[in-house]
Amino acid sequence: MASGGSTRRIDEQWARVSGRLRAEIGETAYQSWLKPMTVREAEGGQVKISVPTRFMRDWVVAHYADRLTALWAGEDAAIQGIEVVVQPDRPLIPAGAPKPKLAARIQGTGGEGHGAAARPDISAPLDVRFTFENFVVGKPNEFAYAASRRIAEATAPPFNPLFLYGGVGLGKTHLMHAVAWHIRKRNPERNVVYLSAEKFMYRFIRALREQNTVDFKEQFRSVDVLMIDDVQFISNKDSTQEEFFHTFNALVDQGRQIVISADKSPSDLEGMEERLISRLNCGLVADIHSTTYELRLGILQSKAEQLGVTVPRKVLEFLAHKITANVRELEGALNRVVAHAQLVGRDITIETTQEVLHDLLRANDRRVTIEEIQKRVAAHFNIRISDMHSARRARSVARPRQVAMYLAKQLTSRSLPEIGRKFGGRDHTTVMHAVRKVEELRERDSAFAEDVELLRRMLEG
Ligand code: ADP
Ligand code: MG
User: Which of 124, 217, 258, 461 has its CA 20 to 30 A from that of 415?
Assistant: First the structure.
């Protein structure tokens, strides 16, 4: 515990720091976020600050931590960071002091009178990076994005539920958190709960064991927006599905919003009850497709910007071509390249990138060979494999050949000349032309785009 003298010093520093920040961020933000803060101590280079709710903690950490640290370091050079903790009862505030506005709002009786006063915090924490602002929109995810935004901005459910589905690492969780952040920011009195289906099940089973299911039901039934991530997890878990179904119906009947995610469409989920599937199908079903080259490039640019580093465009293009599995892997690759460059103090080039990621690139290569691509594409378009190497120029064989070259460029780390050689000794400019042609056709012709996408998915297995 700090002595009286140093407590006074900390209080004075805090008064100056918060005064500066107040001037920077304006009165409203000050009242909402800074005023409810209590400075606990400054020790070991860390200032410890408490706030009344977890939401405030997440928000403060995401938006003000860096600035607060910098301002405080200006007061005391020993300060290197701040730590924000949740302390609901604020014991350091003298009795009778006015309650901070926002905390009162969050914990108050709530606008709709459904028990917000005793609102238990059953939501899992949100990732501060998963906001709409940080989400890069492209063809594969624009529908899911638009639907999520619509939900986030609506006051009554525009469709119920919103069912988001797609493969791993394509942004489902990111979009759900973004919806939650958006609503919590705009309407802090709305009770938004985000949970993985696994957690939901775990809670339910614990309630059963502790014979506490009434509380469990109450908790969920006072929710305004319920988001359950990865529901494929409760397939084949009959009692959990049953409970989920009842919770679901109760909330929908009361006009509350539900958002669900899964790795498959409702109808493709195995081990799900028919009536649950039909309810899930009732609202809006939005799928997130595999990434395209353009989206991957956009995401890389945005991530590099967030990291505050300049990465040569050639390197970003290289990564967008090679790391095609999902966004998570793409992000991981970029982080590795950047971390390596910073560590050894060298520029980021294609060569260093290849070096740093050799295992990952090899794994991507191993996934599919040019021969496999040729075989699959030939079978798909019903032509002979030998036509992949032949000189025939009829559209019926030339187009599939171009598709195969395009996929070879996308799915392997072979260079253009290498690819050309595998296609009957063609020149690298022919391969380049094929890649451009296919990209152009994909833009113009959605049936063609789907064909290519289908092939890509099959090849990636
Ligand atoms: P999922 O839940 O579908 O498995 P996540 O939402 O966890 O995938 O996304 C994996 C990672 O990729 C996260 O770090 C997320 O921020 C990032 N990500 C996915 N899609 C995008 C996008 N369109 N823009 C920016 N980042 C994205
Ligand atoms: Mg997820």
Answer: 461
Q: Are residues 340 and 429 in the same domain?
A: no
Q: What is the pTM of this model?
A: 0.61
pLDDT, tens digit (0-9, with 9 covering 90-100), for 324-336: 888 999 999 999 9
Residue closest to 151 by CA, chosen among 123, 179, 126: 179
Helix axes 65-75, 4-25, angle to 10 degrees: 130
100 part of a folded domain: no
The reply to whether 95 falls in a domain is no
Determine if ligand 1 sits within 6 Å of the CB of residue 298: no
pLDDT higher at 63 or 72: 72
Determine if ligand 1 sits within 6 Å of the CB of residue 146: no
Q: What is the Å distance from ligand 1's center to 258 Cα?
A: 20
Q: Which residues pair with 42 in a beta bridge?
A: 47
CB 141 less than 6 A from any atom of ligand 1: yes
> Is the beta carbon of 165 within 6 A of some atom in ligand 1?
no
Does position 114 have pLDDT exceeding 60, yes or no?
no
Q: Is residue 157 part of a domain?
A: yes
CA of 209 to the centre of ligand 1 (A): 35
How many domains, the chain?
4
CATH code, domain with 300: 1.10.8.60
Decide whether any atom of ligand 1 lies within 6 Å of the 332 Cβ. Answer: no
Residues facing 39 on adjacent strands: 49
Same domain, residue pair 140 and 54: no
Check: CB of residue 262 under 8 Å from CB of residue 285: no
